[in-house]
Write a structure and sequence with these properties.
Low-confidence stretches: none
Number of domains: 1
Radius of gyration: 12 Å
Helix content: 25-40%
Number of helices: 2
CATH architecture: 2-Layer Sandwich
Mean pLDDT: 94
Number of strands: 5
Order of helices and strands: EHHEEEE
Strand order of the largest sheet: 1-5-4-3-2
Largest sheet: 5 strands, mixed
Shape: globular
Oligomer: single chain
Distance between the termini: 34 Å
Length: about 80
Amino acid sequence: MIWTVVVAAPARKSLSRFPLHDAEAIRRALREMEQDPFGGDVRKLGPRSYRGRVRDYRIFFDLWTDEHIVDVTAITRRTTTTYR
């Protein structure tokens, strides 16, 4: 089953500021989410909220299982304040 990955504007803006090799790894992970949003290091944060890990970065997303939509809300570098 193919999932539609929608990246919100703030997440796209963050991605454009990351170093090229890290941004490529994140883009690869986003493409892989089209096939399986649960692949890799993914943790459930809430009823629809999840977090994926790529290197030192975290991809925060919501899943709409009925419509097969992955809504990427934020992409951040993991720091001591990431989850606050």
